[in-house]
Every structure is written in C-alpha cells, then in structure tokens.
Amino acid sequence: MKVKVLCRNPDDYVRETTRDIQRVPRNYDPTLHPFEVPREYTRAMNATKLERVFAKPFVAALDGHRDAVNCMAKHPTSLSTLLSGSCDGEVKVWNLPTKKCVRTLQAHEGFVRGMCARFCGTSFFTVGDDKTIKQWKMEAPGYGEEEEPLNMILGKTVYTGIDHHQKEGVFATCGQQVDIWDEQRSSPIRSFTWGVDSVSCVRFNPVETELLASCASDRSIILYDMREATPLQKVIMNMRSNTLCWNPMEAYIFTCANEDYHLYTYDMRQLSMPIVMHSDHVSAVLDVDYSPTGKEFVSASFDKTIRIFPEKKSHSRSVYHTKRMQHVICVKWSLDNKYIMTGSDEMNIRLWKANASEKLGLLTTREKQAQNYSQKLKQKFQHHPQIRRITRHRHLPREIYSQRKELHVMKEARRRKPEVQLMCSERSGTALSPSKKKLSNVPSLLVSFFLKCKVLLAHHRS
Amino acid sequence: MAKRKAKASRVRSESSSKAAKNSTQVMTYDDGEDELLEGDDDDAVISASEEDEGGSDDERKHRKLLEAISALGGKKRRKLAERSEASVQVSEFAVSAEGAGEKISLSDLLGAMDQTPSAVKSTKKQLQNLESCKDTLELPLSRQETEKIQRKVAFEKTSKDVSQWESIVKQNQRAEQLVFPLNQEPSGPKPVEHVVVGWKPRTPLEMEVFSLLHKNMQPINDPLLTPMEEASLKAMSLEEAKIRRAELQKIRALQSYYEAKAKRERKIKSKKYHKVLKKGKRKELLKEFEEMRNKDPAAALEELKKMELARMEERMSLKHQNSGKWAKSKAIMAKYDDEARKAMQQQLEMNKELTQKLALPPESEEEQEPEETEVVPDFANDAQAAADPANPWMMGKLSAEPAEKDCGGDDKESAVENTQNEEEREPEGDEEEENEEDVLLREFDEKRKSRRPDDDALAPPFQVDKEETEGEKKEEPVCVSSEDEHEGEVVSEFKSLFQKLLANGHESTVNKGTGQDAKESDAEEPALLDEGLSRVRSLEDVDELLGQGLVREHAEDVAEVKEKIPTTAEETKNERTDKRKKKKILDLNDVLTRDAKVISVPLAPTAIGEEEGEGDQRMLVQEAFAGDDVVADFLKDKKKRVEAGKPKVVDLTLPGWGEWGGVGLKPSRYKRRRFRIKVAPPPPRKDRNLPNVIISDARESSVAMHQVSQLPFSFEKPEQFECSIRTPTGHTWNTQRTVQKLTAPKVVTQLGSIIEPITRDSLDKSKAQTRGKKAPDIVLASAGAEGQGPRKGRRKAGENNARNLRNPRRRAIKRTK
C-alpha cells in the first residue's frame, strides 16, 4: 500500500533563529481575509503618520570654523572624512563619525575660494584669494613637521573655483579664464576664454571625464571639452548661475543653481531649453549637489534652507532648516547616499539625513521587509487625500512661509495679466491689445531691417 | 664595356659635328666623365686645362693673349661664358629681378603646354575657365567666425559622443530595481589562486615554510601531480607503462561492464522479475544447504542450529522491531523522507527474515503446529484491526481499497484452508506459494503498523474527523450563512460604495472639467509639499492635521451635496443603479455563501481532543456575550433608520395669524388642515425585503474624506486606478516571496559603500549585451545544419578531457610520450 504524505519546504515552517518567533502556516484564501483595501489603507495611513513623526533629519553640527564656511569637498575614498574651507583661509578636515576636527591648516590669506580632492584621495587642492593654487597631503604632517603644501602655484589673478579630473592628474581652475592644469606643470596646459572676465564655478563631468562646464558672470553657462582648442557651447540665462553640478549617472544632464530662486536642469545637447525648472526656494540658490545615485539632488539657498529635489520634478520633496542655520553657502551629498552636509554663514557645518525618517544603522531582514512594505503602501495610496496631506505637510519658518505666499501671489498676477488684458480688450471691442499690436509690428520691422542689410552688403561688395 | 663604347662613339660624333662648326681640332677621349662634361667647351679651355700643371700666372697670360687674338679676329668668335655674382640677377627683395619689368601672362605658360601632348587638355580647359572669370578670391574668414565654426563642429562631435549614454540612461530609468554601487563584484570567498597571486612571504617563519615547500616542489597551482611524482613516472619504462596501462584498461572495462549490468538490473521496475530473482537466489541457497546435508549432515545441523539460535535471539530482542531511538527518529522523518522509510522497511524485513521459521521438511507434527499458530494470530490481528473503529489506517484501507480487501479475503480463506487441511495445500502448488508470499508481505505491513503505536497516535482517526467536520457543517450553516451574508454584504456594500464614489468623482471631474483644466494648465506640476507653520512632532499632531483636512473636506462635501439637487432624471438613474447594485449584491452573496470546499486533512494533530473542547468553547462564547442581543439591536437600528427616512409633515401654521393667539389657544382646524403640508411618500426602501440588511444612500462624509475624488495622473481610466488599489500587497494576502517581489524598492544602496559615478565599462557592457542579443538572430537560419559539426567535435573533445581528468596519471603518461 502506498501512503502519500504532503511534503513541505522546511523554509516555510522552520524559523531562522531560535530567538525568532514561530512561523505559522497561513491560509491565503481571500475569503478568509476580507476588507483587504481598507486594511491596507489603514496600514498606509499609519505608515505615513509614523514617517512624519520620525522625520528628524538633523544629525549633527560640526563646530570649529572661525568664519563662514565657503566651500567643502568630499573625500573620494573615505566616507568618514570631510574637508571644509572658510572665509578666513582656514581649511579643516573633519571626522564625521566622531564629529571632530582632525586637522586644521591655514591654507590661504583671505577666502578659500574652492577646494577639491584628488581622485585617489591622497591629496587635495585649494585655491584662495591670495592668487595661489596649493596642493596638500591628505594625511596630517608627522610630529615636529610643519604644515606645508606639496605644491604651490602662484597665479596672476584670483582663482574662484577648482575641480579635479575623475581619473587623471589634471585639474581645472576658473577665474578670469578657465585653465586646465597638469599636476606636474606650473603653467596651464590649456586656457579657455569666451568673452567673459570672471567665471565663478567650473566642474568636470564625472562620466564623460573630458567635458567641463562653467558658470560665468555674464549670466552664461559655458561647456568645454578638454581636448578641443575652443569652448563648445554657451547659454545665456536671465540671471547669473552660481554653481552647477553634473549628474553622476547620466552623462549629459547637469543642474545649475540660479540667482533667480530657481534651479534649471539642462540636457547638454540641447541648451536652448532647460528640461526642468525646479522652483521652491525663496531666495538665490547658492549651491547644488547630486546624490551619487543620480536620482535626486540637494540645493542650498540664501533663504537659510536646503531642499531636496527629485531629479525630474519641479518641486522639492523635502526642506530642511533650523533656527540657527543662516545662509547656506555650500552643500554636499555624501557618497553613500545617506547624508547631506551643509556649510553655512554662521561658521557651522551640519550633517543631515538624506531621508528624514530613515532609521540609521543596520536593519534586520524583518525590519527591512517592514520598511519596504510601508514604502510600497505609501506609494500605493499616495493619491488618497488624507495620506497625501500628511506626507506633504512640512513646517516652515514664518519669514519663508510668508515669502513663499508673496511669491505665489506675484506669480499668479504675472500669469493673469495677459488674460485680464485680453478680457479688457474684448470688452472695449475694437482696439487690439498692446501685445498683439507689438506682434503685428514685428514682421514689417524685420523686413525693413533685411532691406537695409541688403543695401549695405551691396555697397560693401562694390 | 660594349655599352660604354657605343656611348662614347655617339658622343664623339656629336662633338665632331660641333668641332666642325667651331672649326677646331678633333678631340680624343680616353675615358672618364670629366672630359665628357667639358666636351662643349672650346679647345682653348681644354688646352688651358692641359697646361694647368704649369702655373696659374702663365695661364692667365695665355688667356689674355688668346682674347686679344680673338678680338683681332673679328666677330665670328663666340662670346665666352662668364661667371658672375648671383645678386645681380637674383635680387634680395624679389624672386627674380631679371624679369621684373615684364609681366608673365598665363598664355605664355599655356604656350609651353601647347607643345606637350593632349593628356593635360582637361587642365587646360580649367585654366581657360579660370582666365575667363574675372572675380577675385574671397578673403579668409575672420578669427571669430572660424572659431564659431570650430565650436560648432566640436559641439556636434561631443554631443554625439555623449548620446551614446542615452541607451544606458533609459535602461536605468526603466529598471525595476537599481542596486548601487552599480558594478559590484560578487561577494563571498574568492578562489585561493586569486588570493595567493599577490602574496609574498615576509616573516622568517613564512620564508622557512615557503622554502620547504619549494624544496619539495609542491605544486601550488596545479595540484594534480607533484614534480616528484612526475619524475617517478618518467622513470618508469615504456613497456612497464604499457603493461600497466593495459591492466588498468582491463580493470576499468570490467568494472564498467559490471556497473552497467548492475545499473540495468537496478533499473528494472518489474516486481515479478525481482521476485523471481530472489526466489532463484533462495533456491540456490537451499540447494546448497541440501547438498551440505547430503554430504555433511553434521555441518548442516550445525548450520541449522546456528540459524535457530539467531532466530531465537531475534525474537527475544527488540533489535529490529523499530522501537529503538534511531527507529523512532526515523519514524518521525519517514513522513517526509523516502530514504528513512526505506531504511525502516529494511530493518523490518531483516526482522522478518530472522524470525521466520525454517521451512524444513516436516519431520514431526509438533514442529508444524507452532508455525500454524504463528500464522493464524496475524490474520486474527488483521481482522481485529479491521474491526477496530479507532484505527484509521484500517478503516481507510478497508473503505478505500475494496479490491485489495477482496484479495485479502481470499488470503484469509486460503489461510483458513492452510490451518484446516494441510493435505489440500500441497496440490495447489505454485499459486499457493504466491499467495503465501502475498500473505507474508501483508503480514509485514501489519506488523509494521502494529509496532508503530506512536505513528498511529499521530495519525488522526479519519472517520471521526470527517464526522466532526460534517457535524460542524451541519451545525454551523445557520450561523455561518448569516455571518457570511453579513460579511459579504458589508464587503459588497463597501465595494459598491467605493465604485459609486469613484464614478461620482469621475463625473465631478468631467463637470468641473473646464475650470480645472485651466487651473491645471497653469500649474504644470503641483507642489510636492504643503508647507505650513505647524510642526509635526507626534501622532496627535498628525491627527490634528488630519482634522483640519477633515473640516476642509467636509465643507467641500457640503458644497457638493448642495450642488446635487435631486431631479427626476437623477432619481431614475439612481433607481437603475440600485437595481444594478441589488444584482451585484445578490451575486456577491452567492459567491460568498457558497459552500467552501471542505478539504479533508489527513494529518490534523489537534483533531482528537476537540470534541469536548468545542462544546466548551461554545458555552464560553455564550457566556461571554450573554448580554448582547445583536439581532435585536440591529432590528432596532433598522427601525430607527426607516422612521428617520419617512417624510415628516410640514406644519406651516402660524398661530395668531388672522385670529386670536395666546397661551392655551390652538389654531383652528381649518388652518391646520390648510397649512399642514403632507409630503409624498418616498420611494420604497431598497432593503425592505431584506430583513437583515440596512442600505443607506446617503453619502457619508466620514468615508468620503478618505476617498479619491479625482482620477490621479498617469491613470487613464478609473478601472485602472481601482485595480491598482484593489490588489493587496501585504503578507496577509500574499506568500512571502510574492510580498518580497511586490515590495522590492526601486533603489537599493549598501550601507557604507561608496557609489562611484557610472563608468565606460558599463556602457561597453550594455553594448556587448545588445550585440549578443542580436547575434543569434542573424545566424539562426544558417546555423541549423552547420552548427552540428563543430558541436560534435567539441563534445568529443570534452569527453576526452573528462576522461583525462578522471585519470590524471594517464594524462601524465601521455605527456611523457
């Protein structure tokens, strides 16, 4: 006689560890578990509420600079190291886990304008108001040794920014012109100019490593190729861009922080129109940095807040601020995608979580699963009004809140103006609106201009 | 030499003609090129050269003299060639000072070309064309313009370069899940070779160990043969090696034959075959025994005694009766594990073999009787077991396998026959034997069962269980159905409400359409955040926040309700929807109250003690809910609602209007009749025929607050959205793996790992992948026939390799050859 026995996979009923709770086999018959939608909705609601309750992004403040923090640099191989340069020419190296300054050096006289670490993490470069480029060792000097730069290049003009190539011993500085330097030489191997006399920021493309972009004082953004003799392309905007940042995962995308309170994301191949305009700030945007995953970026603004934008969204997903944080001058997103560092006017460097409500440290698998599930639920029910309301709620300081309102009113007014004008003109009946008149005038003007040109050309030829 | 002579003669003839012209002497050439070059010059020059050895002064004088003579001689003499300064002809400032005044026209040049053959005609034409057109060449472009062009070209080039990334960027955007850092090496231990490569001994101990290893020439990479071994192999002579090889081959062949045979035999599934085989073996054994008895009866007796002793021992002990620790553990595992079961069976078989009485030729009747008694009780046991209602196995067997039972009956009969008349047994012969075997098998089965009381305890009584479940079914239907109905209705109600609300939302969006479109077009993308002045610190705050929302929503609802003025058309629509709803409800009821499939579970360890427990629990429940009369409450509630739904008489009488008013005075009857307005009765309630249902049409704001009023972006139809909401994702409704799949996050990062920017490698990789995907499509058609040849070859090679691997020594031998 054959006896058939049901065989089950021991994974289904054996617990992982002896401390684990006993696994109970479950009947997934849908009739036994009714109300799936309301039950999941409740879970989603709870998850969103908890997310908001646990949203505490501020991790630490690094105190020690004696003047405003003007620039920062990430260490390319060590997550726990951060470099910062202040307006009194001091450079500090921080250890993030212990929240302590490891090393201080007087790098320049006047501002430290820019700094960047070498791709291998053995040394870093600073430029300052004293017209010098200095290369420093990453390690602190031994006992009794003096703090001295490895290399120093004395330039003719002030350098305002510096960036290092991703793989080679080449770096770029900007000032009156954009210079490309070889580390071994004391004069630039190439200089680019294009009708501007001051460039505020230059950045290497981390993916297509030979490309560069710079922000100039004539409201333009200029693209360069290190291998070419001339710059590539230029776009002139309404207001000046302060900094820009390339997307580390998408070779042709970069975002620039503009003075007109907005950020613009461009496709390098089509500079005529930005892909997205990111607006939420209420004052000039001073710095921007992409997350290493290329999915989000963080922007620092003069309005004393930092905002995190999804890559292709025009509004921010969260805003960080504290009472004591003044104008944020520089911001960096850590290389493990977990933290954000900001340097601000009131001499402090702050460490924030990139995801405000994320639990730090190691998670057990079950915790991870629960997290994933709640994320999924939140995403699933994101359109439901109550959940949306809770997830979107943020606290803002009063000034920024009122300013935002004001800006909104202004924007509305600007939007409505042509409509109102049109309405008025319709009521009056015959008269064309001024804008329409202007439009009708344009072709005739153009024609006359062309005629003049032709005549001139004919003269010239004869 | 001949050539040279010819040349010389030609030159000579030329020079002779010249000499004739100049009326000079014939010159003679011995040999040499110098003279040949100077051949054109006058004799005077030659003579001068001849006299070179004399002295320079003399020469000069001589020349002067000659000049003078020539001047005397008239103008017939040619002017002598003179060497002059180059600067006179070639000026410092221009290319040629000589023809400075003259203009060279193109025609002059062309004139020279006229003489050349017609091969250059085309160029000539071109030149003529050039001559005919009068325009001047344009100036080269200005620096700015050239730069502009350069920039444009460079930009186009770089943008093309950059566009290579587009595919990978899109791929990443579309990816279900991205794990950062992107190009990770597989985790886990690396192979030793990789680790060892960069390692060098540093400490003295390590050095020593290393040197020792090197002395012995231990292999580090290829551990097949040490150099020593190889050397020894080399030392073996060729013949020896050959012999050895032949031996090995033979052995291997034999082994493989044997293995193949065994395998074949093992693979035969026929039971009969095996039976026959066993029988044959047994017979052989018996034969041997017989022979032994014939030859050496004493030895045979010894053997018999031994067997008897073993049997006694076996019967005494519990060694093979599946009662030991091992057997018990196996018994537990036997449910899941085939091998364990087999092992147990083997043990039992062993027991049976050992305890079986030897089938000796009947010598005395005393010996036979115990055998009978041994056989009989088994069957008696069987019968008892069959009768025992507590033994589910028996029950199951009897009820489930009547055929077997029949044959069992046969067996019984035969057994009875066995016991009753021995004489009849013999003529039956082979058939009887087979029967006997069957009987033995069954016996063994029974024994196994009877000796596994634990298992029986584990195995629940089938019939009882079924009865129980049936009983439950019988008892429960009333309550279950009502409950189910209730549940089902609630579910359906919820669902229908949800759908209706969605539909309403859709309608409202359509209605609002124009206004909202304008709004939406202006605000391209809604802000992701609601920024306010309040801070969320605790759950209470969140609730408060919700409350605010509620107030707002409520206001909206009121507005909506106000908008909805019931018209006749809408009423009819409502009725229609009601009908539909009713249908739906009925359907759902059908679905929900349908009898669930009753799965009879063979192993339900808790089923035994439940009969008493169930009653207890019912009592307990009754006790616990003694005060609640749910049904009455429900009815009351329904009544209240019905009452509330009934229209009330509107009383518009104004006391004191047109008559006296005051305390104690009532308006007149006429007035009351006149100004009390009776409202037409409302349409009949939908739940009037459903005693245990309340259907309410009123929109409940407490629910509406949580409903989506507008179809969200990226959904085209309400059904899509509904579907996305309806499918549950949690572990309550899905298996572990499904939940993991459903809730997989889009971006995964590792704790504490640096995420580098994307590199060229990944681009190349993706390109290679796409290429790899494309390649087979192209080859597919042609590769069908051709592909087999090389594949065969490859397989052969693989076989060879495998063989070599199996026998490293052989490979080594090959190498030595």
UniProtKB/TrEMBL annotation, chain A:
Keywords, in A-Z order: Nucleus, Repeat, Ribonucleoprotein, Ribosome biogenesis, rRNA processing, Ubl conjugation pathway, WD repeat
Pfam families (UniProt xref): Sof1, WD40
Biological processes annotated in GO: female gamete generation; maturation of SSU-rRNA from tricistronic rRNA transcript (SSU-rRNA, 5.8S rRNA, LSU-rRNA); protein ubiquitination
InterPro entries xrefs: Sof1, WD40/YVTN_repeat-like_dom_sf, WD40_repeat_CS, WD40_repeat_dom_sf, WD40_rpt, WD_repeat_DCAF13/WDSOF1
GO cellular component: Cul4-RING E3 ubiquitin ligase complex; small-subunit processome
Ribonucleoprotein listed as a keyword: yes
Involved pathway(s): Protein modification; protein ubiquitination
Sof1-like protein domain mapped to chain residues: 354-438
Record flagged with keyword Transcription: no
Entry's family note: Belongs to the WD repeat DCAF13/WDSOF1 family.
PANTHER family recorded: DDB1- AND CUL4-ASSOCIATED FACTOR 13, U3 SMALL NUCLEOLAR RNA U3 SNORNA ASSOCIATED PROTEIN
Protein name stated in the entry: DDB1- and CUL4-associated factor 13
Lineage of origin: Eukaryota, Metazoa, Chordata, Craniata, Vertebrata
From TrEMBL, chain B:
Compositionally biased region (Basic and acidic residues): 402-415, 439-455, 557-578
GO BP term, pick one: rRNA processing
Keywords for this protein: Nucleus, Phosphoprotein
Compartment annotation: Nucleus, Nucleolus
Polar residues biased stretches: 14-27
Acidic residues bias: start-end ranges: 30-56, 363-375, 420-438
InterPro entries: SSU_processome_Utp14 (IPR006709)
Biased composition (Low complexity): 376-392
Primary residence: nucleus
Amino acid composition bias (Basic residues), ranges on this chain: 1-10, 806-817
Any matching Pfam family: Utp14
Similarity remark: Belongs to the UTP14 family.
Protein name (Swiss-Prot/TrEMBL): UTP14A small subunit processome component
Native organism taxonomy: Eukaryota, Metazoa, Chordata, Craniata, Vertebrata
Gene that produces this protein: UTP14C
